[in-house]
Please model this.
Amino acid sequence: MVMKNLSDHEEKEKSLLRRSFGASLFIFLGLAIGAGFSVYFFKGPTVYEKAIQDAWDLMLFIAPRVGAAVLIAAFLQILVPKEVISRLIGENAGVKSVIIATIAGALTPGGPLTSFPVVIALYAAGANKGALVAYLSSWAIIGMQRIIVWELPLLGPDVTAVRVGASILLPVIAGTIALYLPIRLKVHAPPRVK
Model:
């Protein structure tokens, strides 16, 4: 029994490594190396060094936020019981799940570093594809944080009201369409926490 559990654990680690170091990583790595060579040869070593420093600064800025977002997603999987997710936005929840996910997406603060790990956690907990599409669409189109922080102060209440009013139903429409599309999702779920 112990050997079987150890074997399962080793197999899961190998699977995670295979997914982490898959084709997309090597494609992006190749593009990064090619872009680096191009900058070095066409723009010179000074510009290349500046680009490397800027990339390093950006990584230092983003890495803690990605780490925090991944922790939020992991904790969300534990704190919100799978039965609750299944009841509210699971496969049998219907259009109600799209409306709930639309509201949740609009209320989710932060950028993609917050919302995308939450979507993966919801998917791993059993959310249906319509709810996932509605959540992301709502976050992107009618996110309250963007409305309050950017649109109202910069564009004013009239333009903001017209833009939000014209697009408020789009996440519900997109989620409902996705809910009934005969397509199965193949999202790589994060490793399950025991």
Observations:
- The mean pLDDT is 85.
- Residues 82 and 125 are 5 Å apart (CA to CA).
- DSSP finds nine helices and no strands in the chain.
